[in-house]
Structure formats: structure tokens, C-alpha cells
């Protein structure tokens, strides 16, 4: 409720998340809230850590300072990522958001590593931890602040589909567990006079590093070219086949140029006997309308297919039955017959999933085995088989 109140107060047209400016404002608001909350917590925890002589509290104080840096980097990242496209970057600067997240993760990992060293030093050379009730209460108060910040970042991250903000939200939730560990450390010393400060400091540092690795992983994956969102893949295919002249879709490839900045290309199967200009008009219309609906660039290639040939239909059914004996083949497309008389060739592409790891020699063997099966049943057909991959496949 409070998160929605903050959003409605500071973001104009907050429901229009497809608008790049609105999305940028969400990122800026999230970053500013992170700057404010984390800097306040840094000052409070640093003061408390010095007073209590607690390495665990000081460690988390500097983790909050790292979070301040993260919020600042995220803020700059959102501003730069929304720069308009130019000659050198024709698809815009959206990937800057990923780079800013990568920098955030590096900052967090550096802080975590430094405090692992400090905490081990405290374990080897333990010191008395002072207990102060006021400081203890202030640390407890910090927990709901971090809980809200985690919810706020995750909520916005999901709303605008920003992996960077979702990761920052997860990191804030880690802070809640870290603060809980600090409280346990202080209570153990207060009632049992046992110093576990160094050990809790190590746990704090491990949480810091785990959150850094998590953010880094979520950032590197899209930069390396991870598989697209299955929902997006499904939407593109469903929208395409709604057009009267598009009877099938294959070879769909989606390129990610940053959050909400993507382009896709695919082959649309169309009837061979419809005038080319009529098909061209419908493909143009499909490109324009799907691009507008999904807020991305769509490029469609036409593949004419025979729709009224009994020979092609029967041969295609027979090949489908044969391919069921080859579990590594997921599907096939671009099926056609060329030639006349007794000298005819079957041409088609088979799709193999990335779960199947096969070498070039194995691919050649697979093609040969399929060819042998087809020739065994239909000796008059030669085959030209191409191996294809599904570039939208996800685990």
C-alpha cells in the first residue's frame, strides 16, 4: 500500500510502463529511495559499530554504503540506458542497465571479500563486544526499513521487468538476515559473555558475496545471450498465426538489446498460390501490428509452402512418422518436393534441442540414418536434410 502511494506521488502516468520515460522514472525513484534509506542506515550502523566495537555491525554498515553506491550506479545506469539511439548504437543504449548491474555486483563482492578478511582477524584475535540497549533497539528498527526497501525494489523490478532492481531487492532482503545475525551476536555476548562477533561477521560477509554473485549471474546471462522469455515466444507465435495467410511459424530468433528493447525475426509459412503482392501486404501489416503490440521490432521472412498437393501432404505425413523414431528430433519444417518423374528430392529442416549434444560426425550420422529410413520405404526419393536449432528453447 505504502509503495503504491510513493509511486503514485512521484511518477506521472505510472501505469504506462511501456513508456520509456515512465520506466526510467521508476528506476530513478527506486534508486533515490535506496540512496536515502541505505545512507541513513550506514551512518547509524557505523556509529553503533564503533561504540559497540562490533566488526559484524561495522561490516553491515559498509554493506549499506556499498548499497548506496549500488543505488547511485543504478540511477546513472537508468539515465544512460534511456539515451536515444544514435549512429554508433542504432538499437539504443539499453544494455547500459546490465553493465550498471555488473558494476553493482563487483562493488558488493569487493566489500564482502574485505570483511571476510576482517572477520577472520577478529576470530583469531577476539575482542570484547559492548552491549548498548539504545543501539540494539536502533538495529531492530533497521529491519523493517530493509524489509520495505526489499519489497519496494522487487515490486518495481517485476513491474518494469528490471532484473537489476529485482536483484537489488533480493540484496536488501539479505540485509534483514544479516541484521538478525548481528542481533543474535549481541544477545549471545549480553547473556553468555561469549564472543561470536567474528563468526557472525564471516556469515555477514558470505551473505554479501552471495548477493553479489546472484546479481552478477542475473546480469551476465542476458549479456551472453540467454534464451528469451517463453511467454514472449508464445505471444509472437500466437499473434503471427492469427493472420489469414500465415499458416505456420519457425526459425524464430529474438535479440535482446536491454530491458524492453528487443527485436525478433521469424519465417512465416504462406500459401504458394496466393499472389505475391497480397502476401507481401499482409506480411508488412503483421510486422507493423505485432511490433506495436509487443513494443519491439519484428522482421518476417516469407516461406511459400504447397497446400494443395496430395503427394506433398502424404510424403510429409510419412516423414513425420519416420522422425518419431528419432527422439533427438524435436520438429521439422520447410518441407517440399522438387524434381519430376522418378527423380525427386525431399528437402526439409529438422530441429534438434540444445539438450542433445552432438558433434558434426553425429549430425552426419543422424542425417544418414533418417535418409536410409526414408529410402527404405520410398526408394525413389532422395533427401536433402538440414539440421536446425531452436533459438527460443529454455530449460
**Residue share in helix:** 55-70%
The name of the CATH architecture of the largest domain is: Up-down Bundle
Whole-number radius of gyration? 29 Å
Overall spatial form:
elongated
Q: Any overview of this molecule?
A:
The chain is α/β, with parallel strands linked by helices and 395 residues long. The chain has 3 domains: 2-224, Up-down Bundle (Alpha-lytic protease prodomain-like), CATH 1.20.1510; 227-306, Cation efflux protein, cytoplasmic domain (Alpha-Beta Plaits, 2-Layer Sandwich); 309-395, 2-Layer Sandwich (Alpha-Beta Plaits). The protein has 11 helices and 6 strands. The protein has helices spanning 2-10, 20-52, 55-81, 96-124, 133-159, 163-192, 197-224, 230-240, 276-294, 310-323, 360-377; strands spanning 248-256, 262-271, 297-305, 329-340, 343-352, 381-389. Strands 1-2-3 form a 3-stranded mixed sheet, with helices on one face. A 3-stranded mixed sheet has the order 4-5-6, with helices on one face. Strand 2 (262-271), helix 9 and strand 3 form a beta-alpha-beta unit. Helix 2 packs antiparallel against helix 5 (133-159). It starts with a helix and ends in a 6-residue tail after the last strand. The model has no long low-confidence stretch (mean pLDDT 84).
